Amino acid sequence: MSDAETAPYPGILFSILKRGERDPRGPFTEEDLLALLNAEEIGINDFVYYDGIGEWKPLHEVFEIQEQITHFVDDGQDTQRVGIAFREVSNIVGQGESIYYIAVQAKAGLLSKTKQCVILTDRHLFIMTENRKGYELEAHPWKAVTNTLMRDEGKGLGTFSLLLGGERRTDIAHIPLKQVHRLFQLSQEMKEGIAI
């Protein structure tokens, strides 16, 4: 099946209105918009319009990225952060590698400017850290992950921990407990799959 057959908006031309700007840009094809998103010239919160939509809407409400990330927000994740994590990881995963779950840190402290996400694929465990400079991704193949742990912090939050090579432990705190449970369950399944 070609990309044209799977594209949800074949032949439609779009206008984009970036947040904070007054004049729209366009027309663009769906492929143009994807290229602009990947180049970070537009963001998922910028507005899009096309004949038949009725009003300007944020890109993430209209496009395939929304369809792709919807099943990652069942446990109360921040949709915008999930979209960013999905985009960042999608740009680097290998062909045939599938993203299974994305957990989003609820808070990292009052003074901290960082926020972390944990992304599980069938081949890697990724930790994405947002800081003042942008996004940093740490990739750990499942065979390098010795163990994963979870701890209840109280107040509906938990810590997800991973042990790498039996030596280095990394903790991601302040993740909603429902997401920590899901991370732990899926990581155990991934580890069992590697052992077989």
Topology diagram in text:
Elements: H1 3-6, E1 14-17, E2 25-28, H2 30-38, E3 47-49, E4 57-58, H3 59-62, H4 64-69, H5 79-90, E5 99-104, E6 115-121, E7 124-131, E8 134-141, E9 145-154, E10 157-164, E11 168-176, H6 177-195
Antiparallel strand pairs: 1-2, 1-3, 3-4, 5-6, 6-7, 7-8, 9-10, 10-11
Shape: elongated
Number of strands: 11
Low-confidence stretches: 1-6
CATH superfamily of the largest domain: Pleckstrin-homology domain (PH domain)/Phosphotyrosine-binding domain (PTB)
CATH fold-type name of the largest domain? PH-domain like
Strand content: 35-45%
Question: Would you list the SSEs in sequence order as H and E?
Answer: HEEHEEHHHEEEEEEEH
What's the arrangement of strands in the largest beta sheet? 2-1-3-4
Supply Rg: 19 Å
Classify the helix fraction into a percent range.
Answer: 25-40%
CATH class bucket of the largest domain: Mainly Beta
In CATH, the architecture of the largest domain is: Roll
What's the rounded overall pLDDT mean? 82
| N/C terminus separation | 33 Å
Structural class: alpha+beta
Tally of individual helices:
6
Largest sheet: 4 strands, antiparallel
Number of domains: 2
